[in-house]
Write a structure and sequence with these properties.
By secondary structure, this protein is an alpha/beta fold. The chain has one domain: Rossmann fold, CATH 3.40.50. 28% of the residues lie in helices and 28% in strands. It is built from 7 helices and 7 strands; from the N terminus they run H-H-E-H-E-H-E-E-H-E-H-H-E-E. It has a 7-stranded mixed β-sheet. A hairpin with an 8-residue loop joins strand 6 and strand 7. The radius of gyration is 16 Å and the shape is globular. The chain starts with a helix and ends with a strand.
């Protein structure tokens, strides 16, 4: 979906996603020193806002101007530097202690550009966190995009973090409201040496 498509989707209702951070983010972040964070494809800003409320200095980037405007309204007192830009070509002018890629599903070339840019945006010792719908989710899970070529597998993600130290790269289960079936995601946590 392009930026216009996401503008339309974000404009259809108050919040497309819950206002809570992704469930895999807090347990990882709680073990990190508070610092600077970059949320790539931040959408309505739920993860960026949560981090800012934890004391992080946060930049949230998304190509949907409607999503960014909604994030600004939702943020309340949380201070986030909001940027409207395509995350496959966005190159920040600084590095960050934490970079997040949460539920971004792109073709192979765009995904590679995104991860290269994310790794280059990490400060030495910085942490990359990524979460995406797993390919196995199509057959055994619930929700997510129905396009196999853009879904995550460990084998697809591992080469994208070459040069980083992988802490974990694994399938994780995520409960889904009103479903007896869990969603299946891939979680990556890696550190810039």
């Amino acid at each position: 979906m392009d930026s216009h498509g996401w503008d339309v989707r974000y404009g259809e209702k108050e919040l497309v996603w819950s206002g809570a951070p992704n469930m895999f983010l807090p347990p990882i972040v709680e073990g990190l020193d508070v610092g600077s964070a970059l949320d790539l494809a931040c959408g309505e800003g739920r993860n960026a806002i949560w981090l800012a409320n934890q004391g992080w200095s946060v930049t949230g980037v998304d190509f949907s101007a409607v999503g960014i405007e909604k994030a600004k309204r939702t943020a309340g007192d949380a201070v986030v530097d909001w940027v409207v830009a395509d995350v496959t070509s966005y190159v920040p002018d600084r590095t960050f202690d934490l970079v997040m890629i949460v539920y971004v599903h792109l073709d192979a070339a765009d995904m590679e550009r995104l991860f290269v840019n994310a790794a280059q945006a990490l400060s030495p010792g910085g942490t990359l966190i990524g979460v995406g719908h797993a390919l196995r989710n199509l057959a055994d899970g619930v929700g997510g995009p129905p396009y196999p070529d853009i879904l995550w597998t460990e084998d697809r993600i591992a080469p994208l973090v070459d040069g980083l130290t992988i802490v974990q790269l694994t399938e994780v289960l995520r409960p889904v409201e009103d479903s007896e079936v869990n969603a299946i995601d891939i979680l990556i946590q890696a550190i810039h040496p």
